[in-house]
Prior knowledge:
The structure is a homotrimer.
Chain A lengths: L2 E2 H7 L3 E3 L5 E2 L1 E2 L9 E4 L16 E4 L10 E4 L3 H12 L9 E2 L4 E2 L4 E2 L4 E2 L4 E2 L4 E2 L4 E2 L4 E2 L4 E2 L4 E2 L4 E2 L4 E2 L4 E2 L4 E4 L4 E4 L2 E4 L5 E4 L4 E2 L4 E3 L5 E4 L4 E2 L4 E2 L4 E2 L4 E2 L4 E2 L4 E2 L4 E2 L4 E2 L4 E2 L4 E2 L4 E2 L8 E3 L4 E2 H41 L1
Parallel strand pairs in A: 4-5, 5-6, 6-7, 8-11, 9-12, 10-13, 11-14, 12-15, 13-16, 14-17, 15-18, 16-19, 17-20, 18-21, 19-24, 20-25, 21-26, 24-27, 25-28, 26-29, 27-30, 28-31, 29-32, 30-33, 31-34, 32-35, 33-36, 34-37, 35-38, 37-39
Antiparallel strand pairs in A: 1-3, 2-7, 22-23, 39-40
Amino acid sequence: xxxxxxxxxxxxxxxxxxxxxxxxxxxxxxxxxxxxxxxxxxxxxxxxxxxxxxxxxxxxxxxxxxxxxxxxxxxxxxxxxxxxxxxxxxxxxxxxxxxxxxxxxxxxxxxxxxxxxxxxxxxxxxxxxxxxxxxxxxxxxxxxxxxxxxxxxxxxxxxxxxxxxxxxxxxxxxxxxxxxxxxxxxxxxxxxxxxxxxxxxxxxxxxxxxxxxxxxxxxxxxxxxxxxxxxxxxxxxxxxxxxxxxxxxxxxxxxxxxxxxxxxxxxxxxxxxxxxxxxxxxxxxxxxxxxxxxxxxxxxxxxxxxxxxxxxxxxxxxxxxxxxxxxxxxxxxxxxxxxxxxxxxxxxxx
Amino acid sequence: xxxxxxxxxxxxxxxxxxxxxxxxxxxxxxxxxxxxxxxxxxxxxxxxxxxxxxxxxxxxxxxxxxxxxxxxxxxxxxxxxxxxxxxxxxxxxxxxxxxxxxxxxxxxxxxxxxxxxxxxxxxxxxxxxxxxxxxxxxxxxxxxxxxxxxxxxxxxxxxxxxxxxxxxxxxxxxxxxxxxxxxxxxxxxxxxxxxxxxxxxxxxxxxxxxxxxxxxxxxxxxxxxxxxxxxxxxxxxxxxxxxxxxxxxxxxxxxxxxxxxxxxxxxxxxxxxxxxxxxxxxxxxxxxxxxxxxxxxxxxxxxxxxxxxxxxxxxxxxxxxxxxxxxxxxxxxxxxxxxxxxxxxxxxxx
Amino acid sequence: xxxxxxxxxxxxxxxxxxxxxxxxxxxxxxxxxxxxxxxxxxxxxxxxxxxxxxxxxxxxxxxxxxxxxxxxxxxxxxxxxxxxxxxxxxxxxxxxxxxxxxxxxxxxxxxxxxxxxxxxxxxxxxxxxxxxxxxxxxxxxxxxxxxxxxxxxxxxxxxxxxxxxxxxxxxxxxxxxxxxxxxxxxxxxxxxxxxxxxxxxxxxxxxxxxxxxxxxxxxxxxxxxxxxxxxxxxxxxxxxxxxxxxxxxxxxxxxxxxxxxxxxxxxxxxxxxxxxxxxxxxxxxxxxxxxxxxxxxxxxxxxxxxxxxxxxxxxxxxxxxxxxxxxxxxxxxxxxxxxxxxxxxxxxxx
Lengths: 350, 350, 350
């Protein structure tokens, strides 16, 4: 890159505070930045890094106004603005030519949209439909009757089993499995008999799913992932789970069967949620939380068993108070002994 | 589906309580059911859903006898009975024709049973044996000398490394890895030297293993999965672990090296078990539990560090009592101050 | 195997304590050993198994000197010595002939070193470089411009995306994904916009990575795995994480974005570490720990929220003391009531 701050500000519709003629030659994180770099602060809490960064310019939000010792470019959403610049300077993205690689295996009655790309060794079973411009990566397996929308990007080695429905602009990272059987058995005299999992998985538009994720098909009806949901790596979503639009599920989270997650919910890493409960819209679930009962809308729960965050923190504080309580009780015991002695003395004196 | 309740009752050998002439047109979960649907209750604790369900008939166990406002079909095991009806009404299962796809690669001295199906791009290395009617999915890799029984269903992209033994009627879901090296190093002056993992994995009959599971091969001897064991998605089973018959391991559980799990054990989601311990037969391990020592047979342990459930719950209750203790101590302090004052006054008066 | 103890002692440069003429016919774990077996003790804490083992000889460290009832072979590092013997007696390792399988797909401008082995259905995209004697397993996908060193062993179904750098003697187990997009979004009015992840992953020499692991590419710059790092199965390493040389990451650990892990750190199973923090050199993080702030060098932290181990254990002990505190407070309340009564009586008497 070789662009003046004012040129960059123009691209991201930002307001320059400081020297707009400085030339930017690279981009970087705020801690690692060298002179010539452009960086950004997404979160006010990292604000004092402005005093130490070596970056020549920093993209900031509307809440940061004084320039310290570096030029600022003020925008509405610094992450988004920085992302725009990143796409300009990053290496050219890998592109996959449309067309069907001769080694791909395409079943009967498959309907492919315009400009679909089917990479080597992909297997598309009978009656599959794939929308325009979708890319099916190398070695991907797509089961019978599955429907995939347009502009999807399915990375190598993904397995999507039969009768799944996937919307438009969905990204699925390598190794992920969609539509494996739900985990359900009827136990008779200690022997577990498989319960058929005849439902499906339905995934909305603009969903992104990380690597090595597992999303099971429903026992009946469907497991549902709403529009705009983002799922990180190694997440487990059991049968008949419902996830509302624009929720975010961070890595290694597990959601048990038939649980309903509302819209705009954030579930942080390694949290676990039991089955058959409801997590309300806009709720936040802390990292490693173990959720054992319904979570109301807008609540922020943490810990195990998960409680409202303020309550969980108070509990943590209570535990920290125990040594003090032990001391106080010892003190009280002494005082009472002393009182008893004095009282006895009083009585004896009479 | 279009069947009278009495016809369904006949199939599942159930007793009708209510109108046996009602026509059933679909199946569903008890909460989502519409008129015309058949549903079931597996667990007495959901009993009061009988008052609100819109289902036309509900399969119930012997412990539910009065029909409320819907027809009941009473059977020994409602889940199993419902599963039977599901297989009748569900979409036709995908079938894979027997035979070897021309793109499958079959090594030297491979022995295939009757009616084996080897799907596209599967790789079967030298000296592998596969029993009758087993299905090897697309892109599956089976390493040298591995033996797989009959009637197995190995889904796409599974990797089974060399010298593994797998029983009959085993189902392995996509992306699972059987027989990766155990995690073992000898550290000399801070450098970790790989310890060869020359053992194997042995899997019994009627085992089901979820998606993206990892079961490591033993350092020597074998990692063992007993008959009838059911393993959910993203589970980690380390080298030399032994799992007794009919145990159930729920999603994202991790079992460390050389640990022995008894028969009929249930390990709930995200629990972790350290290495070199024993979990007795019929034990239950709660979700997210962290098991750090032996668990006796029939015990139910929860929490981290895991304790008997009643003990863990009592601990939780203790913590909830702390604010009350703080109040009581404050109260006692006041009273003692008061007593001291009074006593002093008494003495002064004399 | 059929070797006298003295012959084995020679191979591993050990000192025999006991009968050096005994013939060893097999190897085994110390608990499972039968007469004729050689076994070992890596850890002094298993020392008293020497009294019960049926092994004919046991490899021990310098800290065990008296032979009890079995012959000892004393060496510097018993695990390493035993590993040497294991490689002698174990089944012959599977070897993969060098050369490119005719079904492998090799892109343009790919540079392969001497004696590289490319197994069936592997896909090597344009501009990839692979060093001498590396083995690329069946169905592996290697993205554009990626560089892999020499003597690497990449197991089947691994996906390594574009522009990744991997050192020499690296082992990657099946199903692992290197270089998936980091999980980053800019949220504007509840809608999550993807932030390009234009960085890469760089992996040092002598690294081993387990099965179904996910290591994300950086937002910019790189995610870094130092020399000699060992990573177990199902581990999640987020974008821009840095892991210092010779650290050990046990199964199902999750490390969040931009966190820095020092050298020789040990992170036990299922631990989770939040983003943007630093874990110092030689630190130990307990199993299932939830690390929420920086960990100083050489610290040993456990629990959730993670604290120094001694502190965490003291907290556990505090909680165990609560019932005692409840009893003491009840007792004090009684005594105070009694005192109040007596005092009142005293006063009344006057």
